[in-house]
Design brief:
By secondary structure, this protein is an all-alpha fold. It is 77% helix and 0% strand. The chain contains six helices and no strands. The two termini are 41 Å apart. Pfam families: DctQ.
């Protein structure tokens, strides 16, 4: 754990993500339930899909960010899990986190371009006239936060790798204090 992970910002961000997950999942559930009930009662619930999609977008992207925070997102690390602790496992963790960060930044750049495009086009939903930037901004937010967490965890892995494998090797290879006196 590094200094950043002990800050109020780190704790507040994780609490914000948890609150957002709870709120958006409740909204998705309530809106879906209301749609089923109104359909059964032949009541027109016009435009609920627009709000449902916004909530679902935010739920998904908050879940992406929170999964990155917990480091519990889907990974292709079956080999790493089965490997014994050591140099190769530490190196593969760095490679995996580097690739996660690189791909996250690529997707983040695409999300930023999409966000800019929705602002320029000024698209709105057909019924409620909600700007499309409301749902598209979830991509930008979620990928920014996920990339931030990937960068922090990559830093931690590199620091751990250096501490375990590089400085240990330097200490073994360097002459001891006893020889210096001879």
């Amino acid at each position: 754990m590094n200094k950043l992970e002990k800050t109020a910002f780190w704790k507040a961000l994780s609490k914000f993500l948890r609150f957002g997950l709870i709120l958006s999942s409740c909204l998705v559930t309530i809106i879906t339930f209301a749609a089923v009930i109104t359909r059964a009662l032949n009541i027109n619930f016009l435009g609920y899909e627009e709000i449902l999609i916004i909530c679902a977008f935010w739920l998904y992207m908050l879940g992406t960010a929170y999964g990155s925070f917990e480091d519990s997102h889907i990974k292709a690390d079956v080999i790493v899990v089965m490997m014994p602790d050591g140099f190769a496992k530490s190196l593969l963790a760095i490679i995996r986190n580097s690739l996660s960060l690189i791909l996250g930044i690529i997707f983040l750049l695409w999300a930023f371009q999409l966000f800019q495009w929705t602002i320029v086009m000024a698209n709105k939903t057909p019924v409620w006239r909600i700007p499309m930037t409301v749902s598209q901004s979830s991509l930008l937010f979620g990928l920014t936060v996920a990339s931030f967490y990937h960068a922090v965890y990559l830093y931690n892995d590199i620091k751990l790798f250096i501490g375990k494998h590089i400085t240990k090797k330097i200490a073994i290879d360097s002459p001891s204090d006893e020889r210096k006196g001879e």
